[in-house]
Amino acid sequence: MKISSEFSKYAMHYGSYNVIQQKVADKLLSLITSQPKNILDLGCGSGTLARKINWQYDKLMAVDFAPGMLELHPKSQKIECIYGNFNDVNLFEMLREYNFDYIFSASALQWADDMEKTFQQLQAFHTPVALAVFTANTFKTLHVTAGLEPLLIDTCKLESLQRKYFNARFEVVRYKLDFDNVRDMFRYIKKSGVSASRNVLSYKEMKKLMQEYPLSYLEFEVAFIY
């Protein structure tokens, strides 16, 4: 398992709450050496990956379970946006009717209800993958300070599943996102989507956490499988 780190100074401003997801998409695309023609983007969101692909392709199928995100996704004759949830086996049964050269997923699969079942479904395509998954070490100090259990999958468990289902490389990248003040930091958590909008603390507990959080930055850990 390869581990690297990246530090990012981030000045908060409207419309830039997905700064880490942007970096993850850039990293994911940099890891592949081919230029696939028929692409599946699983958990595509508003189209970060589609906007960053810089080669000519024949077809990109973009799948997401949020209609509002799909509305924002780039549209063209080569791009097909499909409403679907990767926790639904029926989605994979439908997708296997298509031929894909490559399967991408950037910053989405951490919300799989059952990561092993999802990997099983992906393996059944017999197609190269490039996946980026946020791990339990994302917001690590925040969780420790608040006394919360991580929401996301443990890195070692994820690597074990990757070895079981894919003949692929596994690389972990740690990001730090610096903030000018704690209020901006917690606004980012709410708006970015990294926490999946899960409100696990009361107002009183959140206020206490904001007072006690010891860092000027948030920690992220992303596993890349490719």
TrEMBL record:
What molecular function does GO assign, one term?
A: methyltransferase activity
Gene3D superfamilies given in the database record? Vaccinia Virus protein VP39 (3.40.50.150)
**Biological processes per GO annotation:** methylation
Keywords, ordered alphabetically: Methyltransferase, Transferase
**Lineage: superkingdom:** Bacteria
Please give the Pfam families that the UniProt record associates with this protein.
Methyltransf_25 (PF13649)
Q: Where is the Methyltransferase domain?
A: 39-124
InterPro entries cross-referenced by the UniProt entry: Methyltransf_25 (IPR041698), SAM-dependent_MTases_sf (IPR029063)
Q: What is this protein called?
A: Methyltransferase domain-containing protein
What organism does this protein naturally occur in? Answer: Sulfurimonas sediminis
